[in-house]
Amino acid sequence: MQSPLKILFVDDHRGLRDGMIFMLQSKNPALSISGANDIDEAISKLNADSEIRIVILDLTLDGENSLDSIPKIKESAPNASILVYTMHNDEVHVEKALLSGIQGFVTKEAPIEELEKAIVAISDGNTYFNSVASKVLQTLLPQNRGKHYVYDEKSYLFDNYKSLSKKEHEVFNYLINGKSISDIAKILKKAEKTILNQRASIYSKLDIHDRYELMETAKILGLVF
To answer: Buried b / exposed e across 109-146, counting CB within 10 Å, b at 16+?
Structure first.
């Protein structure tokens, strides 16, 4: 009798996660899926069970980029494959995921049959990237480097965005959500001059000059629609 394929589904939206686990196991009884709410819980479960073969990972957990935790996941489960399952389908997020060494990428608007198909493919030692990820993957091939100006521009912006400090990220998010300097100062209980200085630093790091360019940058990064 074949042993069940053990999978860890990491997603902080418990209802969605548990519903997907139920449907996947109902469609394919060979799957044995447990859930984790965050990276710490995931690492704990991976350390406790060396037979987990696939980690289904949401790109964003508690507002943070979960891809930064992939080295820790690989250290705890070096034989496990990683399948990203996310709402993000823009080139910046997809590129970042692909470059982190994942084995699969499926967006959350895909039918459950596609997610199951990705799981089966990865369990057989293959990779599985949906149509959006496949297009970005083509731009990452050595022979295509330098042929995609927009792709390179997004990568440049993404690198600059990552250089923002935690407090600058906080101010950035308030700004793109329409908050004024005085509003942000009240919310964060800081002097308006402090917020102005942080905004100036954000503009400098992102090479932008006004709120219009700020919003256009946020759209390119996939942070607003």
So the answer is: ebeeeebbbbbebbbeeeebbbebbeebbebeeeeeee
